[in-house]
Design a protein that fits this description.
alpha/beta; 24% helix; binds alpha-L-arabinofuranose; single chain; eight-stranded parallel beta barrel; 11 helices
């Protein structure tokens, strides 16, 4: 168990008044009084483009934690495993999802991980105590197994480096092991272990949550920034083509939030490509259990993105450099029930096995809208995590099931293509009460409807994602195209239900699943759709 666990730290920071209490975590725009339209409307113009959608915006994360790797994706001896020990049913689900990039091997785990323990003949690999999660780590799954798993899952790696207990040199060694063809100590070690071809790993995280006292090797922002710069230089000497993510703040609850980002960037701005953001949402301390408030929390993710981007740009200005940093939102999800991270020195213990309900899925839908809204700046994002541990997929020995949050994630992966557009949305609003440790008072008004739009010029397909935060009423939304209106509705589905707390379980895996949305009407340049109370909808149209 880490000396201070993340959740304890959040509560302590809040109790001490260290959390950014007075900041009002909803978007500043929400504090203005918008004109209340009689009916919600959204205007779409393909010229109003946020970005070309980056393939890495809907990535995910697998950590050596609980049953994510062992008994999650890797279970040798199981009738469901292939010759490599990979769970074929889980692989099939992940391939079907089409996850573009997967962060690995942590998380907190990475800060105590020696990657050399996880390569070579399996019989020779040491069994060690993972001190981040107090768990026995057999090292039977390591870097080479992950690369092979990525190949089979049809995804790319986002490799985490140990900048906690590990040295910058070891980071460079791992890049050499993974990316150099041959003729050096580490590339030849990979070949000796049976992997002739280099992996060509492009995306790397320079450590994990180094601002957090719970992190192995926690240090000051300046110390971390210097170490990250050293690692980045050594890694780029091996392979100049890398995309490197520096560790930003662990979240807005940190007393050093934004200050950490500024101080560490002052040391490493020139040699990194992006800064990481992390965020886990809850329907307790942040909201007092008020679901109307909970469904508005994606707006606080908008604000977090804008704030971290502002700090990056401030450092850029002070350095007089033309280089603009990207953001990597490489941990985001709902997480607040299964928070005990103590593995009690067990192998693959049941840790962080959060069971998600309908309202969590609706918020995840909202968080996806937020990521799309900021897709010009957020170039990588990872739903944390993918299997068993705070995850959309859950396994037991016999099967794998889809949790509620699987559905909005799958919709985004399957349907968002091409350009992300910026719709102009007019919506009636509601008051969110100012409760919880991250709040200081009235939060102003929040729109009932939130919306994201993508448009793929090549296929002519347009995708609308619509969140209705109204718990009691459906809303008729009129969508008006200013140009290039589609001609046909291809699909319309909705995730909704009467019970916000309903979940999927192994006994009842299809309790919360999408259903057809009452046919939206498309007349000329106008589409009318009924967004049911407490719902997240998908509409796909074609030209
Ligand atoms: O995703 C679970 C944990 O949350 C990760 O290990 C850590 O980075 C974060 O605190």
């Amino acid at each position: 168990m880490s000396p201070v666990n993340r959740r304890d730290f959040i509560s302590r920071a809040s109790a001490l008044g260290l959390a950014p209490l007075a900041q009002g975590w909803l978007s500043a725009a929400q504090t203005e009084e918008p004109a209340e339209p009689a009916t919600p409307r959204a205007f779409i113009d393909p010229q109003f483009r946020v970005s070309r959608l980056d393939g890495n915006l809907f990535g995910s994360f697998l950590e050596h934690l609980g049953r994510a790797i062992y008994d999650g994706i890797y279970e040798p001896g199981s009738p469901l495993a292939d010759a490599d020990g990979f769970r074929t049913d889980v692989l099939a689900q992940i391939r079907e999802l089409g996850v573009p990039i997967v962060r690995y091997p942590g998380g907190n785990f990475v800060s105590g991980y020696n990657w050399l323990d996880g390569v070579g003949p399996k019989n020779d690999r040491p069994t060690v105590l993972d001190r981040a999660w107090d768990t026995i780590e057999s090292n039977q799954f390591g870097t080479d197994e992950f690369m092979e798993w990525c190949r089979k899952a049809n995804t790319k790696p986002l490799l985490g480096l140990n900048l906690g207990s590990g040295a910058a040199k070891q980071a460079g060694d791992l890049v050499e092991y993974c990316n150099l063809a041959k003729g050096t100590k580490w590339s030849d070690l990979r070949r000796k272990y049976g992997h002739e071809q280099p992996y060509g790993v492009k995306h790397w995280c320079l450590g994990n949550e180094m601002d957090g006292p719970w992190q192995i090797g926690h240090c000051t922002a300046k110390e971390y920034g210097l170490k990250a710069a050293d690692a980045a230089r050594q890694m780029r000497a091996v392979d100049p083509s890398l995309f490197l993510v520096a560790c930003g703040s662990s979240g807005p609850f940190m007393p050093t939030y934004l200050q950490w980002d500024r101080e560490m960037l002052e040391q490493c701005y020139d040699v990194v490509d992006a800064v990481s953001l992390h965020r886990y949402f809850n329907n307790t301390s942040e909201t007092g259990g008020d679901s109307r408030h909970y469904l508005a929390l994606n707006l606080s993710m908008d604000r977090q993105i804008e704030e971290v981007a502002a700090v990056c740009d401030m450092v850029r200005g002070r350095l007089h450099t033309p280089k603009r940093l990207h953001l990597s939102f490489d941990e985001w999800n709902v997480w607040y029930r299964a928070t005990d991270g103590d593995g009690h020195k067990q192998v693959a213990p049941h840790l962080l096995e959060e069971v998600y309900n309908l309202e969590d899925a609706l918020l995840v839908g909202g968080l996806i809208i937020t990521l799309l809204r900021h897709s010009d700046r957020v170039r990588i994002a990872c739903l944390a995590q993918l299997v068993n541990v705070i995850a959309p997929l859950m396994t037991n020995e016999q099967t794998v099931i889809r949790q509620t949050i699987y559905y909005p994630y799958a919709w985004a992966l399957h349907n968002c293509r091409g350009d992300v557009l910026r719709p102009v949305v007019e919506s009636p609003t509601y008051e969110v009460p100012g409760v919880g440790p991250f709040r200081s008072g009235g939060l102003g008004r929040v729109p009932y409807l939130d919306l994201a739009v993508t448009h793929d010029g090549e296929s002519g397909k347009t995708c609308l994602l619509v969140l209705n935060r109204d718990l009691d009423n459906s809303h008729e939304l009129e969508v008006i195209w200013r140009a290039e209106a589609p001609t046909r509705v291809l699909t319309s589905q909705v995730l909704t239900g009467t019970d916000l707390k309903a979940s999927n379980t192994f006994a009842e895996p299809n309790r919360v699943v999408p259903r057809a949305l009452d046919a939206p009407e498309l007349r000329g340049t106008r589409l009318t759709l009924q967004a049911p109370a407490k719902s997240f909808s998908l509409v796909v149209l074609e030209a």
